[in-house]
Amino acid sequence: MKILGIESSCDECAAAVVEDGKRILSNVVATQIPFHAVYDGVVPEIASRKHTEWIYSVVQESLDKAGLSPGDIEGVAATAHPGLLGSLLVGLSFAKAFAWARDLPFIAVDHMLAHLYASQLSGAVPDYPFLGLLVSGGHSIICRVDDFDRVTVLGTTIDDAVGEAFDKVSKYYGFGYPGGLAIDKLAQTGNALAFRFPLPNLHKGEHRYDLSYSGLKTAVINQLEQFRVPEKGGAMSAAIPSTVNPVDIAASFQKTAVEILLRSLFRAACDTGLTTIVAGGGVAANSYLRARIVERQDLRCIFPPLDLCGDNGAMIAGIGYQYLLRGDRSPLNVVASARVRAFKRNYP
Ligand code: KG4
Ligand code: ZN
């Protein structure tokens, strides 16, 4: 069954065709990053306008690359939540129209569940239940996964998402948006033990698996600020001063950011007895995170390939197939929502 998957929740305009939930026939991602980078973050109005301009050609390209015509598509899936409302509406409406015009089954899916499904597109077959690690620019979630659509949140961030922390630190370095990859690359040559940044004090009760990044972000910025020197005229220099090795600060930041994730994740693994971890989301591409997780030889860790960590249409088509296979359909009046809708919260 060939499914067209459409993703437009944020700043990637993406469409893909996936066969039987596994075989990627095409995967087109048109990034808007250059349009947002000048503002150091995603501008919702620009994002939805660009989606509107691009969606038709992105879908056309996904069909062309798969060597298919619209008549070959057997089902349509699109992201309905979470994300920027204006952006979501473009992809969702296009997908509904495509399905309606060709009388195809249609399914609206959750973006975070799709991130969790991404690794299965590369042939990984995790046995349920497992622990999910969802780390992106908007979310940081540790969860128990009982099926592709049955997820219980064990822990989440109480302030910034981990990708957001990478992006904010990157902005301070002048690397622009999004900055996770730039910090990852910079950190690779630094001394991660040069600076000790604080870990959040969240290890008890209902926050046992929760995460927090605002303290770390502030500490990193303060560390850099301390060494800043006033320029002529009294203004502070925007450049990172030569007395500080910015590479070491980046490496120490990254080490702490990953440490925060792993403390909660490994605590959840220990408490639940679950030994398989499946990661997803843009930050799952982080080289240090990947290296640190695999050190735990008692755990099986599954990561999507790098090109499927970030937002893409293949993960939408892939999980969409699982719903359609089960006979699920969304009505064509299904609404978009800015929030995660598919997860329930559980305090152990
Ligand atoms: O999943 P995603 O593409 O979009 C959202 O759903 O948010 O994730 C984007 C996030 C950004 O914050 C970006 O800086 C981060 O993933 N990211 C990384 C890396 N590559 C992307 N963070 C750390 N290390 C990376 N290598
Ligand atoms: Zn995402």
Tell me about this structure.
- This protein is α/β, with parallel strands linked by helices and 348 residues long.
- It folds into 2 domains: 2-118 and 308-345, ATPase, nucleotide binding domain (Nucleotidyltransferase, domain 5, 2-Layer Sandwich); 126-304, Nucleotidyltransferase, domain 5, CATH 3.30.420.40.
- It contains 10 helices and 11 strands.
- The strands form 2 sheets. A 6-stranded mixed beta sheet has the order 10-9-6-7-8-11, sandwiched between helices.
- Strand 6 (130-135) and strand 7 form a beta hairpin.
- Helix 8 (246-272) packs across helix 9.
- The relative contact order is 0.20.
- Zinc ion binds at residues 111, 115, 136, 281, 311.
- Return Rg in Å: 21 Å
Bound molecules: 5'-O-[(R)-(carboxyoxy)(hydroxy)phosphoryl]adenosine, zinc ion
**Quaternary assembly:** single chain
The CATH homologous superfamily name of the largest domain equals: ATPase, nucleotide binding domain
Please identify the structural class as seen in this structure: alpha/beta
Low-confidence stretches: none
The biggest sheet, with number of strands, parallel, antiparallel or mixed sense and barrel status, is:
6 strands, mixed
The run of helices and strands is EEEHHEHEHEEEHHHHEHEHE
CATH structural fold name of the largest domain: Nucleotidyltransferase, domain 5
Query: Widest sheet: strand order?
Result: 10-9-6-7-8-11
**What is the first-to-last residue Cα distance?**
39 Å
Shape: globular
Average of pLDDT: 92
Q: Which architecture of the largest domain per CATH? A: 2-Layer Sandwich
Task: Tell how many strands the DSSP assignment holds.
Answer: 11
Relative strand content: 15-25%
The CATH class designation of the largest domain is Alpha Beta
Total helical elements: 10
Helix content: 25-40%
Domain count, please report it. 2
